[in-house]
Amino acid sequence: MPTPVPQVSSGREVRLLILVVTVAVAVLLVLARFRFPAVDLTPVSPASNALADAASHTAFTDLERAVTDLSARVLPACEMAVLEHVEPPSKSRRSGPAAKPEPASSRAVAALRIRASVLLVHLPAGLRVSSVAGEAVDPGMVMIDAPHELALIRTTTTLKPVADLTEAPHEFTGGGYVAAVEAGITRPIVRPVFVPRLEPLSDPRWIRAPLAIGGEAQLTAGAFLFTLDGRFLGMTSIADGVSRIIPAAALDQLVAGLPAAGAQ
Fold this sequence. Notes:
Elements: H1 10-35, H2 47-56, H3 59-74, E1 78-85, H4 89-92, E2 106-115, E3 118-122, E4 127-132, E5 135-136, E6 142-145, E7 150-154, E8 176-183, E9 188-195, E10 197-200, E11 211-214, E12 224-226, E13 232-239, E14 242-247, H5 248-256
Antiparallel strand pairs: 1-2, 1-4, 2-3, 3-7, 4-5, 6-7, 8-9, 8-12, 10-11, 11-14, 12-13, 13-14
C-alpha cells in the first residue's frame, strides 16, 4: 500500500494570509504617516458670510458715514433763514374795503455763522430777510450787498461754532463728492453732491474768480459747500444760467470789508 501524504490545514493557511496582509497594511500606514504628515485643519465660516460682509461695506457706506460725521460738525454753525418778496410800493397804497393784503411768498435758505454774532446768507434781488431761526429780523440788523446778492444778519452773541472762511482746500477741480448745506423742512441739512468739474470763470464783481460747475451738479443758489473732511469750499450762485461756486477766499475778502462783519 502507498504511504499517505500529510494534508496542511486550510484554516491555517487563511490565518497566515490574513496576518501577512494585516502586517503589510500596517507597514504602509506607518510609511504614509511619515511621507504625508497630518495637517490640522481650522474650521472656516461658509463663503456666503464673506460675500455678505463684502456686500455690506461699500463706497456708499463710507460716504454715508462721512456725511453723518460732517453734519455733527457743520450744522451747529448754520441757521434757517426765511426770505420774503419785497412788496411793491403800489400795493402798500391800496385802500378801501375791497382791498385785501396778499400773502407774501417766501422760501427758506441756510445761513452760515461767520462771526459769533453775524450770519451770512444768499439774498437775491427782490427779497428780504424776514426771520432767522423762527424769530423776526429787524431790517436794521441786515447789511445787504446787492451786487453780490449777499446779506449779513446781526444776531445776539452766542457760543455756537463759527465757520472759517479761510479754510479752503487747495486746487479742488471737481471729480468728487462735496457736502452741501441747504435749507430743510425745519432746519438746515447736509447732503452729498457729486461735482463733475470746476473751471475758473471771469467775473469782475469778485476779487477771486468764481468756479463754474461743469455738468449737472444739482445745486441751488445759496448752498454752502464743504469738503467731506470739513473744510469750507464756498457758496453756490447762479448767473447767466451757469451754476458756480464763490470760493471761500472771495467771500472772506468781501465780508471783511462790510461794516457788520466787524461784530463779535
